[in-house]
Known about the structure:
Layout: E1 3-4, E2 8-14, E3 22-26, E4 31-35, H1 38-58, H2 74-85, E5 97-102, E6 108-109, E7 117-119, E8 126-128, E9 134-136, E10 143-145, H3 150-155
Antiparallel strand pairs: 1-6, 2-3, 2-5, 3-4, 7-8, 9-10
Amino acid sequence: MNSTPQQLTCYIKKTQANPETWEGFCIEVDIPAIGDTYEEVVGKMHQRLAAYIDFIHQRQPDDEQSLMFRPMPGGQAWKLKLEERFLQRLPFSKLQIRKTFVSSEQGIPAQLNPHHTELCFNCRKYRSVGLFEVYHEPNSAYVWYDKTCNLCKEAGVT
């Protein structure tokens, strides 16, 4: 199985409902964690992501579709980035949010790399980029993938 040295991005913040509780989110894999302290949530995020990455490395290539890149919804990820970069720095803000990175000893599997997968607009599943037709404009470096995977084209779904 192909691995990349990429790291997964996690945001850990205090909850608004209960300021004594921390929650963490991994935006590439959409795995949450909750705990009483920042350190506890970081530990849980590392454990859960390591278990998920080990699980992916143990699976056969036939099961890859269920293990593909499944990111947190874009609006929620954008909100976390905005809170971490700008909103918590405002003088009246009570937000406490921190960004951390998680990597694996084995390397992050290619299925979790957003550059290895594309979303098929017909079946609404993340598929390997190898299942899409590649278009290249002449005299240009611009390359893009078809919006429909070859599996949907073969099945006649349009």
